[in-house]
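Minutes, project huddle
Topic: does the predicted pose make sense with zinc ion bound?
PN asked that the exact inputs be recorded in the minutes so nobody has to dig through chat later. Recorded below.
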Amino acid sequence: MIVDSHNHLSEWSPDAVQTFDEMMQSATEIGLTGIVATDHYDIGSLTPYGKEWVLDPEAYRQEMYPRRVLPSERKPGDLPGFLYGIEIGYLPQHIDRLRALIADYPWDIVIMSLHLINGYDPFHSPDEVYKSSLEETYRNILTAIAESAAMLPEANIIGHYDYFSRYAPHDHPKMLYRHAPREFDRLFRIMIENEQALEINTATIWKLQDARGYSLEEAMPDSEVLQRYLELGGNLISISSDAHSASNVGRLVPETCAWLQEHGVNDHVWFENGKLFRAPFEQSPGVNISEVNKDANLSGYN
Ligand SMILES: [Zn+2]
Ligand SMILES: [Zn+2]
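Predicted holo structure (tokens), as shared on screen:
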């Protein structure tokens, strides 16, 4: 019963290798309720060919929008739903352009992500990004993510808060609440106020496990981060595999849902045309997908 809210396609994201059909095939095999294409819109990021990571939003709309099948209207046995979204890379100097992009197209889901800090990306310029301690680096990053959430409250999901832990050269790069407690609190308060979902990105989990020496259990997000989000009243968790290839669609999603359930989180959210939907991880009789009524009780999970 999962909608995987963040995935990339080869035709639209320079770092992706799956076609739409391949992604849908994987989603069908795994049995997802729905899947979302959220290709990159990263002003300032360059491919090896010197081309900006910015898709043509009108061409993208024309190709993707007609393919939408709303997960909320899916019946048992139907193929997975499909939604149309975008992953916007936050750059404060381009705020007007980003705002217009969000306003001008009928996105189901807008993910706001931070891929650059002070103009540097962590993959190509680790020496510039990780100049100071992990604590100081993560404090700066979370401050920038909080700024992005505040500046673009219309963004539905705050993407991979822990993205920079994937490439930190330090021995134990996993991002912890204790690295930046005040910054986490500030970010979560802004997100909760704006009704922006907290993305649990399984690509970070996989990276920590595959390349950074963590066991799967240790690679899961820091429990304290999740607990603090819940304590502050957060109750919008989105699940994403951030797949760039068909074999990565839904990767570690079952393990991540099990981990969330251990922490008292039993459902997840996604957006359809910007409207919030919620569904439990496991379908049980009498429990169904629901559009979240803004007047309904939005208190914490517990
Ligand atoms: Zn990203
Ligand atoms: Zn992504």
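Observations noted during the meeting:
- The longest strand covers residues 34-46.
- The chain has ten helices and eleven strands.
No decisions taken; revisit at the next huddle.
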